[in-house]
Design goal:
4-stranded mixed β-sheet; about 230 residues; 6 helices
């Protein structure tokens, strides 16, 4: 990706903030060895395989501390699941979504592409605490398809803003055309200003794109081994 041809059209790149992506690890027995085996068979089932050095470093970057796991911001709550669930969910979420989203956005920005990044953090009324802000949960917001009788006013407001951001981008390649609802300015993602727009009905704001920085850099530095 870093060496291939680049399309210089403007791009939108984003994802949700919290996912529960940990599939069963040996009947939920989250020992370090079982987690290593799970990561090996899921992300490196054929050569080049993950080395013990890489696997040990991975576990060090994602410690066995539920307050640091996914869904994020839920403290030590484990929702009745084994403690290791949130640990593995954080690993797999970063491997599948966050590391790739960040690297794609950085690569586009470094190539001079006008890029805009977002992180969707609004809980759905249809979600559960253990599921968090799940993959694809922003789609109904973008298309204005929320049920106003079941969703809070903050979600309806966020949907209106998102519709206008997306329409603005589709018609001008810039989410900030000044038309439609009043909404925060969405800054361009550049090598000098790596920021995301946090999309949340109670707090839509610009945030730095630096969460789990060391871990995500490690994942991308070893992308070939993880077959990303």
């Amino acid at each position: 990706m870093g060496e291939g041809p680049v399309c210089h059209d403007s791009v939108y790149i984003g994802h949700e903030s919290r996912r529960r992506d940990a599939r069963p690890v040996d009947n939920y027995n989250f020992t370090d060895e079982n987690i290593k085996n799970y990561i090996q068979t899921t992300y490196s089932a054929f050569p080049p395989y993950l080395s013990d050095t890489i696997l040990d470093r991975l576990l060090g970057l994602y410690p066995d501390d539920p307050s640091l796991g996914s869904p994020y911001g839920t403290g030590n709550e484990t929702f009745g699941l084994p403690v290791g669930w949130k640990r593995v969910a954080s690993m797999t979420g970063d491997l599948t979504f966050d590391a790739q989203r960040r690297t794609w956005t950085q690569t586009a920005a470094q190539a001079g592409v006008q890029a805009y990044g977002y992180q969707f953090t609004q809980n759905r009324s249809t979600s559960t605490a253990e599921l968090g802000v799940y993959h694809s949960s922003e789609i109904d917001f973008v298309y204005g398809q929320l049920n106003s009788s079941s969703e809070p006013a903050s979600s309806i407001l966020l949907s209106e803003m998102m519709v206008d951001y997306w329409v603005s981008f589709a018609t001008s390649l810039d989410p900030n055309d000044g038309l439609g609802t009043s909404r925060p300015s969405w800054p361009q993602y550049t090598p000098e200003n790596e920021v995301l727009l946090q999309l949340n009905g109670d707090n839509t704001a610009v945030i730095p794109d630096d969460y789990r920085k060391e871990a995500i850099e490690f994942l991308w530095d070893n992308a070939d081994a993880f077959h990303r």
